[in-house]
Design a protein that fits this description.
By secondary structure, the protein is an alpha+beta fold. It contains five helices and eleven strands.
């Protein structure tokens, strides 16, 4: 069960990403194959763990179990006429991942959660990378659900500002953000300056979250 006292995300993608503008266009259609789209997004960037934590409903460390569904987010409730005449436009292809939660480091989550992301098999974008089966991830999440055009799951999450809220655990026990350029201020505070890789220890992540959510 998803619990929140912060916000409700409607529709799933547009509402979840503050100041997000997604432009989508078709780049080619082959007979018998799904249409591929290209997109670009202007989004609110979070430059610290504290900022991500302040905006997120939850943060977890978990393992990707795999894809459990796909559908298209049209962003609003469609009228019967729009559906009949196909007037809704291309929409945003979405994919649902099942995540086994190893540790909830912010908020309250179930041991297994569903996370919706842009479908990179059908959407070409620089701001989103796919999650891989059996991959470990650190995710900053917003609660979503009841989206008018997304019906496969009643309750699910989206990541904060696309890949900005996704970190990959490292063998050393740390975590590296998938959009490291957003965290240059963090690296500039270190001894070797901006040339240091943007790798956070999990203790740093937990401490930053604790500042925002004591």
């Amino acid at each position: 069960m998803i619990r929140s006292n912060k916000k409700v995300v409607l529709p799933a993608l547009a509402g979840a990403l503050a100041s997000l503008v997604v432009l989508v266009w078709w780049v080619g259609i082959r007979e018998g194959e799904p249409a591929m789209q290209r997109s670009t997004a202007s989004m609110q960037g979070h430059t610290s763990i504290e900022s991500l934590s302040d905006y997120a409903d939850a943060a977890v460390i978990g393992t990707v179990k795999g894809i459990v569904g796909r559908e298209t987010d049209y962003g609003k409730k469609l009228s019967l006429l729009q559906k009949t005449l196909n007037l809704h436009g291309p929409g945003i292809p979405m994919v649902y991942y099942e995540i086994d939660v190893t540790e909830t480091i912010q908020g309250v989550t179930d041991s297994t959660i569903i996370v919706a992301r842009m479908d990179t098999d059908r959407l070409l974008t620089e701001q989103v990378t796919a999650l891989q089966t059996d991959q470990q991830v650190v995710l900053f999440l917003l609660e979503a659900g009841d989206g008018p055009s997304m019906k496969l799951f009643d309750e699910f999450y989206v990541t904060v500002s696309l890949d900005n809220g996704v970190f990959d655990p490292l063998p050393s026990g740390g975590a590296r953000p998938r959009l490291p350029d957003y965290f240059t201020a963090f690296t500039s505070q270190r001894a070797n300056g901006p040339m240091d890789p943007v790798n956070f220890s999990l203790d740093e992540v937990r401490a930053a979250i604790q500042k925002v959510n004591p």
